[in-house]
Amino acid sequence: MSYYGPSSPDPRQPNPYQSGSYGWNPQGGAPQPPQNYHPGFMPVAQPGTLPLRPLSLGDYFNSLFTTLRKSPGLFFGAALLFGGLAAILTATGEFLLSRSMGNLGTMDPYAELGQAMDGFAIWILVSMLLAQIATAFGYVFTWGIYSTMVGRGAVGMKTSLGQGFRLLRGQWGRLIGLTLLIFAGIVIATVITALFVGLFVYLFLSDIEPTNGGAIIGMLFMIFALLLLPLIPVLYFMTRWCLVAAAMIVEDIGPFAAMRRSWSLTRGNFWRTFGIGVLFTIIVSIVQGVILTPLMMFSSFAILGAGTEAEFNLATVIMNTLISAISTLITFVIYNMLAIVTNALYYDYRFRKEGLHLEFQQLAAQYSTDSTMDRFDTSPDQRPSSFDETNLVLPGRHSVGMQQSQQPGHFPQTAAYPAPYGQQPPQPPQGPPQPPGPYQ
User: Fold this and answer.
1) What is the largest CA-CA distance in the chain?
2) In contact, 432 and 22? CB cutoff 8 Å
3) 2 by DSSP, 3-state: which?
4) Confidence of residue 181 (pLDDT cuts 50, 70, 90)
């Protein structure tokens, strides 16, 4: 040993304590992290379709397409199932309406017009009721089943159409009740609007002379403005209650409790929720117009190409029925994309207010072995059963990781995916400290 300290180690001997390994600190104290460890930047935890942190606007666009890629069978299967039912009922009403219009065109000119118009009004009413009932039931059911798809996709689990229906087991009565509440709200809003406009016209516009063109235009403008006034509270309540279906299915609660839950989650986030909803509604409407415009043009050319009056009437009935069915189905599928955004809003607000993303990280770590399974291994042990209970887990319904008892001396289990920057959980010690080596 030299005067200035121990002699240098033999370079031919390997050093068991390389720089950067966990070992005994030469100056004493706790074990030091490796030298190549950079805690300043941590990647965002995203094991599935949603980043497990509060979402930004870009995350909603990304989650929309990643969810469609994750579980296309559930999205398109449910949309085509319920949308097809709505399309059939709508096309039936359109067919009856077209037949009624054809009967009016070929009626006896000496027949009573009132009797013909009574039948015409009945077919209009039947068509509207069939379309509204089918569409409302379809939207409520699909928005409910999509809440399971978005939640499971956030932790990296794929959801099939059969799993989605099994996850809705016991919820069908609540979905029907929610649909009836929506119908009741529509009826109440319509009656109040009609009474308000009728009373205003009776009190202020009943003395206007019908020969005054400017007064008539002003009256029509006032009626239009009065029809828009009730739209303000309707949009407000729609925004505050837009998370009802997701809360009811995910948290397994009734419709009224889900309304209170949605009201609580959107408290303080009204303008954010309203803005995101309007933005995606405009985008979806543009997509709908781009798809349906060529279809409408084709139907017009097909009707105009008819020769005789009988061929014209037949072509009108056929094309109106087909276009009604196809446009209803396409519109139903396209507008169901808004359900993915709405369900993402639900989980986003629970991430922000309840820290649900931490539980999702634990669930993602628990079920991460499914994503790393060899997809080319066909052995029975490696093929997960679609009827396994683990495939029916609905994240957010019951706390799993947060309810683990914390005992003294035990560190909480952490997820395999890192938490967002600045929210790193405590790490357990890496074993008892070892004595210093002979060359330290």
Assistant:
1) 129
2) no
3) strand
4) very high
333 falls within a domain: yes
Helices then strands (H, E): number in the chain?
A: 14, 0
Classify 52 as helix, strand or coil. coil
- Is 389 a member of any domain? no
Alpha helices in 229-366 (DSSP H): 231-240, 244-250, 255-265, 270-304, 309-335, 337-354, 356-366
Which residues pair with residue 427 across a beta bridge?
none
What is the percent of the chain with per-residue pLDDT over 90, rounded to a whole number? 30
Q: Residue 7 has what DSSP assignment?
A: P
Question: Collapsing DSSP states into helix, strand and coil, what is residue 5?
Answer: strand
Assess if residue 103 is contained within a domain. yes
The tokens describing 125, both together, are: 């009413």
Question: Which amino acid does the sequence have at 355?
Answer: G
291 part of a folded domain: yes
The DSSP H or E segment spanning 102 is helix 72-105
Q: Indicate the number of domains in the chain.
A: 1
Q: pTM of the prediction?
A: 0.71
How far apart CA 266 and CA 9 sit, in angstroms, is: 66
Burial class (CB in 10 A: 0-12, 13-18, 19+), 411: exposed
- What residues make up the domain containing 348? 72-171+242-354
Cα separations in angstroms, 427 against 363, 372, 407:
18, 24, 15
Instruction: Decide if pLDDT at 269 tops 90.
Output: yes
N-to-C CA span, the chain: 14
Task: Name the percent of the chain lying above pLDDT 70.
Answer: 65
Cα–Cα distance, 50 to 156 (Å, whole number): 9
- Compute the distance between CA of residue 152 and CA of residue 146 in angstroms, rounded to an integer: 10
Give the residue carrying structure tokens 């070892």. 434
The Cα angle at residue 334 between residues 330 and 339, in degrees rounded to 5: 140
Q: What are phi and psi of 337, to 5 degrees?
A: -65, -25
What is d(CA 353, CA 55) in angstroms, rounded to the nearest whole number? 12
Instruction: Answer with the residue of higher pLDDT: 235 or 408.
Output: 235
- 5 has which bridge partners? 2
Contact between residue 235 and residue 204 where contact means Cβ atoms under 8 Å apart: no
Tell me the CA distances in angstroms from 285 to 25, 65, 83, 187, 303, one per residue in order: 64, 17, 17, 25, 26
